[in-house]
Amino acid sequence: MTTSPYPKLLEPLDLGFTQLANRTLMGSMHTGLEEEKGGFAKLAAFYEERAKGGVGLIVTGGVSPNMRGRIAPFGCEMSHFWHVKKHKQVTEAVHKYPTKICLQLLHTGRYAYHPFSVGPSKVKSPITPFTPKEMSVRQIKGTIKDYAYSAKLAAKAGYDGVEIMGSEGYLINQFACLRTNQRSDEWGGSIENRMRFAVETVKAVREKVGAEFIIIFRLSMLDLVEGGNSWDEVVAMAKAIEKAGATLINTGIGWHEARVPTIVTSVPRAAFTWITERMKKEVSLPLVTTNRINTPEVAEQVLASGQADMVSMARPFLADAHFVNKAAENKADEINTCIGCNQACLDHVFQQKRASCLVNPMACYETELQLEKSKQSKRIAVIGAGPAGLAFSVYATERGHKVEIFDKQSEIGGQFNVAKQIPGKEEFYETLRYFNKQLTLLEIPVHLNTEQTSESLLAQGFDEVVLATGIKPRKLDIPGIDHEKVKSYLQVLRDKEPVGKKVAIIGAGGIGFDVASYLLDEKSLSLDLEAWLKNWGVDKNYQHSGALLNKEELSKHQPKREITLLQRKITKVGKGLGKTSGWVHRAHLQKNDVTMIPGVTYKAISDDGLLIEVNGKEKLLDVDNVIICAGQESNRDLQQSLEQGGMKVHLIGGANVAAELDAKRAIRQAAELAVVI
């Protein structure tokens, strides 16, 4: 008998009245399909693929128990009998496999993006435009009944349970904390009163659904905001939730308005499992831990060391639906790992767009992007082994085409080889490991250190050519641009050329921010949990409410360089960065005293430094180096001559659009082309 490669991760979990196949929970993610016309059929296909991939328990995206709790004006709710039918599509699809599924009940409270929002008190959220109306006692009791009725409808729809969302700063969390609960009645004041809403909700749900129904309570164990709860208050709440009838407690980390990053790629792996471990000493319910657990090795370590009874992974199941099965078959090196970038998942959801995944554009498009075998197998040359070229080659080969890759560099990866140098972006190595493995499994010929000409390609008898040649820097029109002080970002990141102590960076897009981070940090904090927690002000000893350090306790360090980040645009510097991660990059540079200047006109570069003009006034920046992170154009050198030779040519990635290095668009274009070619 072969031993399991991940014995704790793949071990069943007995809940008394039912058993989970393993210790993996697919955490709640809103996809946007919940509100699309015909979206539930697509949602069913999305969850079915994950059930087929072996996950033990799925928690859906947040669904409101009533109209006021909806995320947005037409947000999804489970409050009427006619809502049951569409949800049955999801549960029936999942139950073709041994996977269980729970509906997440989420009332947004003051986080609602509509004017009918309510909260424990009339306290506006910093991340939404509407001030909530203070709930009357009648409304509170009515909302608790709504939760119970929603749970009953969920049972009718075939769900195995519900997750009651009590963290991340949503309504139940708002009641629990003094930050947002300023009431003086029996629903405010002491922690016993503030947690009453949560406890009464769990009791009402349990009464409505009976004993044999999973109730997960998502408890905010670290609020990470001022006015958050103390550890003693969190423990009191956990014990009361256990007594009220919950089956599992899931770990919630941070409010949406917290100024501590909790899930972006620069957060260390399993950065918050210590708080779940601490809670295990206080309650006897099985506990689920969460946040930045993205490989079976990390998950196994967390479980084997007794920090939790289950691990919740949300985005890793977007990146690879078959995460669990691959782990069980000892094929972890074939897992398409989540890199924590947020670009296609959370950023999309917060822009009211359908979620997907940068490294797996098939996620949430299971019914639309299907790799069916091609009727005709073509010989295709792919020029460029960056993300676009690699993704296309893998998808097209899976459809039966004969693909060969050519790249003039000595390794695959293109711009990912630049990105992985940035402190906090170590996860990019995982994507390159995944593609390397796929190239081997699919036996795709890769010709490195090989520059092709149109003549050589035409002579080899290919049916079609895909140009994934990326971008090339465009020379900026600034007097002195050829001065020895000037370097391109590639010279700094790829070629490791030395850079002085005082630096001006021209261009404040993603590349400019990356170069600034690279020049600031000698080592990556994402590889040192204790240093990372201190840097972001997390109080691991929980001496203060919200688990935040006092200002005087924050780690102070002397920046390695004096950096000025410049842009021509007059908008806020960094405005174009990711919606859910941009603030992290800006905060990191601000902590390191980086000067950010918008509305700049570049006058000249000389021995004296960089002469700029801002608001009509000239200013000389005394710098050792000027690094260019702006101005690139598509590299399409081969297109015209190939087409003139009668070759059909396709452009994807940077070769197609060079506005900013954009792996999300590049990999999606690759998939869309592979499906139709």
Task: Explain what this protein looks like in three dimensions.
This protein folds into three domains: 13-336, Aldolase class I (TIM Barrel, Alpha-Beta Barrel), CATH 3.20.20.70; 379-472 and 633-676, NAD(P)-binding Rossmann-like Domain (Rossmann fold, 3-Layer(aba) Sandwich); 477-522 and 560-630, FAD/NAD(P)-binding domain (3-Layer(bba) Sandwich). 30% of the residues lie in helices and 17% in strands. It is built from 22 helices and 27 strands. The chain is globular, with a radius of gyration of 26 Å.
- Uncertain runs are none
Identify the CATH class of the largest domain: Alpha Beta
| Mean of all residue-level pLDDT scores | 94
Distance between the termini: 45 Å
CATH superfamily of the largest domain: Aldolase class I
What's the β-strand tally? 27
What count of structural domains? 3
Shape descriptor reads globular
C-alpha-based Rg, rounded: 26 Å
* SS content category: alpha/beta
What quaternary form is this?
Answer: single chain
Strand content: 15-25%
Q: Outline the biggest β-sheet.
A: 8 strands, parallel, barrel
CATH overall fold name of the largest domain? TIM Barrel
Strand order of the largest sheet: 3-4-5-8-9-10-11-12
Q: How many DSSP H or I helices?
A: 22
Classify the helix fraction into a percent range. Answer: 25-40%
Family: In the N-terminal section; belongs to the NADH:flavin oxidoreductase/NADH oxidase family.
Cofactor: FMN; [4Fe-4S] cluster
Protein name: NADPH-dependent 2,4-dienoyl-CoA reductase
Keywords: Flavoprotein, FMN, Iron, Iron-sulfur, Metal-binding, Oxidoreductase
